[in-house]
């Protein structure tokens, strides 16, 4: 009987761990992996209907509105069907249909995208919208809008 109780406890713990990992696909459970942003509610390959909600996650840093220069804080930027790399990471993230700014400190949004495949990626920008290199961007995900 004692072994059965232990087995059930291990299975319950494993199920909780699996759910926890799924909720934060890019978030590191270990502080030594460093700060990161991640998309909480959507995963690579998901199929959604427009409009749909995107929830932002952040590990190891805090949120502050644009224009507020406070250590270890920033605000979210959502990249849609684009990426930033190379020298572009040294400058303010553009603000347009493919680069959504959440300078008010928002941690989620509702998007309306046309049907088809789309990529989404989160980045954390500083008070001047420049990507914070110390914070790992989310892994880009591809979703299909029906």
What does this structure look like?
It contains one helix and nine strands; from the N terminus they run αβββββββββ. The chain has 146 residues and is α+β, with helices and mostly antiparallel strands. It has a single domain, classed as Sandwich (Immunoglobulin-like). The strands form two sheets. Strands 2, 4, 5, 6, 8 and 9 form a six-stranded mixed beta sheet that branches. The radius of gyration is 18 Å and the shape is globular.
Helix proportion range: 10-25%
Number of strands: 9
- CA(first)-CA(last) distance: 51 Å
| CATH class term | Mainly Beta
Overall morphology: globular
Class inferred from helices and paired strands: alpha+beta
Assembly status: single chain
Beta content comes to: 25-35%
| CATH topology (level 3) name | Immunoglobulin-like
CATH architecture, by name, is Sandwich
Along the chain, the helix and strand elements come as HEEEEEEEEE
The number of helices is 1
**Domains, number:** 1
Largest sheet: 6 strands, mixed
Quick tags:
146 residues, alpha+beta, Immunoglobulin-like, six-stranded mixed beta sheet, 1 helix, 9 strands, 32% strand
Short note summarizing the structure:
This protein is an alpha+beta fold and 146 residues long.
How are the SSEs ordered, and which strands pair?
Layout: H1 2-23, E1 36-39, E2 47-48, E3 52-59, E4 62-63, E5 73-80, E6 99-101, E7 108-111, E8 116-125, E9 141-145
Parallel strand pairs: 2-9, 4-5
Antiparallel strand pairs: 1-3, 3-7, 5-6, 5-8, 8-9
């Amino acid at each position: 009987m004692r072994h059965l109780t232990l087995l059930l406890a291990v299975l319950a713990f494993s199920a909780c761990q699996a759910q926890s990992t799924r909720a934060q696909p890019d978030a590191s459970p270990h502080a030594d992996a460093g700060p990161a942003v991640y998309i909480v509610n959507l995963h690579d390959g998901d199929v959604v209907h427009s409009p749909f909600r995107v929830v932002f996650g952040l590990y190891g840093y805090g949120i502050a509105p644009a224009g507020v220069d406070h250590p270890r804080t920033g605000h979210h930027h959502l990249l849609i069907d684009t990426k930033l790399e190379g020298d572009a990471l040294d400058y303010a993230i553009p603000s347009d249909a493919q680069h959504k700014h959440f300078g008010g400190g928002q941690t989620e949004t509702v998007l309306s995208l046309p049907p088809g495949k789309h990529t989404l990626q989160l980045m954390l920008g500083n008070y001047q919208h420049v990507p914070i290199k110390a914070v790992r961007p989310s892994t880009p995900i591809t979703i299909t809008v029906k």
